[in-house]
């Protein structure tokens, strides 16, 4: 394990080194010179280069191809960073905040090593959707064609946002670690990237605002804890109950589903959690119910839960790149106009105003002067932001909005100075140029990631109104208590700087409340009065004796509408403040924000987008195979947690650093909220204490390893021997038939999962989710074929099926015997149609004859 850890760590450090010149030349506006994001940038660019080159047949998906991509990125980095290198050569001064570099490296190493230890006690990919994650990694690892084949549906490419798995396997190729090792090493590495990314964003906010390096580091560490380490407030109640303290009456007030359950007590204050009870419930504190009172599951995970669970899902794998995109937006937002990378203040002041050029020429002049590295810098923004579609599509819209908003802010501050008096774009330029920038981000993303879009499918079926399940505020507070307090501190801090006018406050409240209410009222009318609407609403069955849905809608919103009101109010206040601030800039003719003001505005932008994400599911959700708002809550709340952690950490540290200022009602509010926010974050630390010890069985294990598949070798050596035989003796695209897989069963589809060889049909429920309406036609006939092969077919039927579906091998193991009740006669018929090529214990592999 130590060798594996050191090898992976060295590769990540090499990736950091190779993009260092590019990082320092690109992030010229950040106090840390972007160093906290260099590791994520290096992994992204090498993985992207390998993926793009492989997709167009220019590189091969193997170790040599990965190192060639490494070399290409190295050359590009040093060429694009040559201006920084020239300055370094001429001045012999690197102008690098070395203290910050040391802090970032120490934090990354500590987080990486700590999570390697955790994973070594709990490495197995043997529950929930871990087998799915491992299947994707193995499919990508050995796939001879691109896009990578789907090992659970032979003949088709992966229909999922698989770029996170691709990045893991890319580092795996470079470090010589196969998918079963890269699974756990990669997760530990990503945990370190998450913490240093959070550290970097808040460090830069505070340092840019003039705070000392020490204070900025404290804020960065607080952000890492708030986002990546702490849990929600429900973990406190679980810990108290697990330790024998009766909190039932108070817990009933929050009405968390399936509580209480008495876990075993062992006398250790830190190890009384039950993972599948106490810890699991913290990710399910939000509950929806049907009209008849039945439970509807809603997922409200947060990063520490995800990492402790151990699933390498897209929402986990995408977060380091999300933080990279936030840093790119921050770098853009902090630009001083006119700006060229590495230009001095004197040189910047001598830049001529943009001539009275055409619309696009004027826009490009703006981009050149506001985006470091100009065209290459803009391309890097497109690559990073566009990667979010490929990593976790849910993440792209909020950060596309953030980057576009930051460019809009730069124009608001700078357009009068840039275009000069009398330019025909003076009045409408703010919105025109921001719109062009936003569209180019979308178009560029579509072109660059075209190979992915050509085969991507989705289960999304449009949007649906949330008529019946507004979130109970008590449960929302359990999930986001620290965030509400942190946003209160941020708004209180903002109100000490500037107060919105009454007109803007009224307008913001009218839009923020009015638009959703109009949507809900209109949706209710359509649902009750139209045939299509009635068909949709009928999915919520009425209780016996009820004749109309309207009383239920009114009753639930009247009792549970507080979350909608609170979130709407906070969002309206944030929008009104931002509106007032930029309107004031335009009216005053100011072309520069004070640095402290820039940091405050950026933190408010983060908070406002986070509020929008958690506000939206109150009245709308994305329709999918689940038929509820479960997935919308899951993905939106996850990003909200990140954005709230960043903005709250900035607000708390800034507020507590200015305790000696003039006391006003707004400042008093900010101080009180900051103190309570810190308390809420601290109380959430009961989650990692209890959950990690529960998941690792109090850090005990018969054998420690980072191999996600070792448990199979220990418990099912016959199956593992078959896996090794398939890896050695079959082609990467060989079709190895297994039983039709049951979703969430780690015992099913082991050959395809662990080798990447395609099978006829794996986890059906998941394939349906990934492919939407197209799934039925794609999977047609496959279940019948498997029944013939393993159960009812004659020798001739089996031979015909093998030939018709071009099946190379048939795997027979415990699951196949169980699911198809395979008799000795059935296996005799199979042996007559195919040759036995592997046998160990009760596991056999047959090869189709006459290939």
Q: Could you explain the architecture of this structure?
A:
It is a single chain. With 851 residues, the protein is mainly alpha-helical. The chain is 64% helix and 4% strand. The chain contains 40 helices and eight strands. A four-stranded mixed sheet has the order 5-6-8-7. A two-stranded antiparallel sheet has the order 1-2. A two-stranded antiparallel ribbon has the order 3-4.
Topology of helices and strands:
Elements: H1 2-18, H2 20-26, H3 38-55, H4 63-80, H5 82-91, H6 98-121, H7 130-142, H8 163-175, H9 179-208, H10 213-228, H11 234-242, H12 248-254, H13 275-281, E1 287-289, E2 295-297, H14 303-309, H15 314-317, H16 319-333, H17 345-349, H18 359-370, H19 374-392, H20 396-419, H21 429-448, H22 450-453, E3 463-465, H23 473-495, H24 502-529, H25 531-537, H26 550-560, H27 562-588, H28 595-615, E4 620-622, H29 630-657, H30 665-683, H31 686-695, H32 710-715, H33 717-729, E5 736-737, H34 750-755, H35 764-771, H36 775-779, H37 782-792, H38 795-804, E6 809-812, H39 814-819, H40 824-833, E7 834-840, E8 843-848
Parallel strand pairs: 5-6
Antiparallel strand pairs: 1-2, 3-4, 6-8, 7-8
């Amino acid at each position: 394990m130590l060798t594996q850890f050191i090898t992976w760590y060295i590769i990540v450090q090499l990736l950091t080194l190779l993009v260092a010149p590019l990082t320092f030349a690109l992030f010229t506006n950040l106090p840390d010179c972007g160093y906290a994001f260099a590791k994520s940038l290096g992994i992204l660019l090498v993985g992207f280069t390998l993926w793009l080159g492989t997709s167009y047949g220019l590189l091969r998906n193997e170790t040599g191809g990965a190192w060639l991509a490494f070399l290409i990125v190295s050359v590009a980095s040093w060429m694009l960073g040559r201006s920084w290198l020239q300055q370094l050569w001429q001045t012999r001064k690197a102008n690098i905040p070395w203290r910050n570099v040391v802090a970032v490296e120490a934090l990354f190493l500590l987080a990486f090593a700590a999570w390697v230890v955790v994973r070594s006690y709990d490495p197995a990919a043997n529950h929930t959707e871990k087998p799915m994650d491992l299947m994707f990694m193995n499919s990508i690892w050995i796939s001879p064609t691109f896009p990578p084949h789907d090992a659970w549906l032979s003949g088709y490419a992966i229909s999922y946002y698989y770029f996170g798995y691709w990045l893991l396997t890319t580092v795996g190729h470079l470090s010589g670690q196969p998918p079963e090792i890269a699974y756990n090493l990669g997760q530990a590495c990503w945990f370190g990237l998450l913490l240093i990314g959070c550290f970097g964003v808040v460090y830069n906010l505070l340092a840019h605002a003039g705070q000392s390096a020490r204070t900025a580091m404290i804020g960065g560490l607080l952000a890492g804890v708030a986002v990546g380490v702490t849990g929600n407030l429900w973990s406190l109640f679980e810990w108290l109950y697990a330790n024998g303290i009766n909190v039932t009456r108070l817990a009933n007030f929050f009405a968390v589903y399936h509580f209480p359950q008495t876990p075993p007590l062992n006398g250790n204050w830190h190890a009384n959690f039950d993972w599948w009870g106490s810890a699991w419930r913290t990710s399910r504190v939000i509950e929806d119910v049907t009209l008849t009172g039945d439970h509807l599951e809603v997922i409200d995970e947060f990063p520490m839960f995800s990492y402790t669970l151990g699933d390498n899902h897209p929402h986990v794998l995408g977060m380091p790149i999300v933080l990279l995109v936030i840093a790119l937006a921050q770098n853009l937002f902090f630009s001083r106009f006119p700006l060229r990378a590495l230009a001095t203040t004197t040189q910047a002041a001598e830049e001529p105003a943009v001539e009275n050029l055409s619309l696009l020429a004027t826009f490009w002049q703006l981009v050149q002067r506001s985006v470091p590295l100009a065209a290459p810098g803009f391309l890097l923004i497109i690559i990073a932001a566009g990667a979010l579609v490929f990593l976790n599509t849910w993440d792209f819209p909020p950060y596309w909005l953030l980057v576009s908003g930051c460019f809009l802010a730069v124009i608001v501050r700078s357009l009068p100075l840039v275009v000069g008096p009398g330019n025909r774009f003076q009045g409408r330029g703010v919105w025109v140029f921001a719109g062009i920038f936003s569209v180019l981000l979308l178009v560029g993303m579509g072109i660059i990631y075209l190979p992915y879009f050509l085969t991507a499918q989705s289960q999304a079926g449009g949007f649906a109104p949330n008529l019946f399940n507004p979130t109970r505020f008590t449960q929302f507070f359990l999930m986001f208590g620290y965030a509400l307090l942190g946003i209160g501190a941020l708004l209180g801090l903002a109100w000490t700087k500037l107060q919105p006018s009454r007109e803007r406050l009224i307008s913001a409240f009218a839009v923020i409340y009015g638009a959703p209410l109009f949507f809900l009222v209109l949706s209710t009318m359509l649902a009750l009065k139209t045939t299509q609407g009635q068909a949709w609403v009928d999915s919520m069955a009425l209780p016996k004796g009820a004749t109309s849905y309207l009383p239920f809608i009114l009753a639930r919103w009247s009792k549970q509408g507080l979350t909608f009101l609170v979130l709407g109010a906070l969002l309206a206040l944030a929008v009104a403040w931002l509106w007032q601030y930029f309107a004031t800039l335009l009216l005053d003719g100011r072309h520069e924000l004070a640095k402290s003001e820039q940091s405050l505005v950026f933190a408010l932008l983060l908070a406002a987008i986070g509020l929008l994400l958690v506000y939206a599911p109150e009245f709308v959700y994305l329709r999918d195979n689940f038929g509820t708002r479960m997935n919308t809550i899951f993905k939106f709340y996850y990003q909200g947690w990140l954005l709230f952690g960043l903005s709250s950490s900035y607000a708390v540290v800034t507020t507590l650093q200015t305790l000696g200022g003039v006391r006003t009602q707004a400042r008093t509010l900010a101080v009180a909220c900051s103190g309570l926010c810190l308390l809420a974050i601290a109380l959430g630390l009961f989650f990692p204490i209890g959950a990690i010890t529960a998941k690792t069985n109090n850090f005990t294990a018969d054998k420690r390893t980072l191999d996600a598949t070792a448990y199979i070798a220990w418990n099912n050596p016959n199956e593992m021997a078959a896996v090794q035989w398939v890896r050695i003796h079959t082609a990467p695209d060989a079709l190895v038939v297994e039983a039709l897989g049951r979703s969430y069963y780690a015992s099913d589809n082991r050959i395809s999962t662990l080798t990447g060889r395609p099978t006829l049909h794996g986890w059906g429920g998941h394939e349906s989710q990934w492919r939407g309406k197209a799934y039925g036609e794609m999977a047609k006939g496959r279940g019948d074929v498997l029944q013939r092969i393993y159960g009812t077919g004659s020798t001739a039927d089996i031979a015909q099926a093998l030939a018709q579906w071009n099946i190379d091998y048939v795997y027979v193991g415990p699951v196949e015997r169980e699911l198809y009740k395979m008799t000795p006669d059935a296996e005799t018929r199979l042996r007559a149609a195919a040759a036995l090529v592997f046998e160990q214990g009760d596991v056999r592999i047959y090869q189709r004859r006459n290939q």
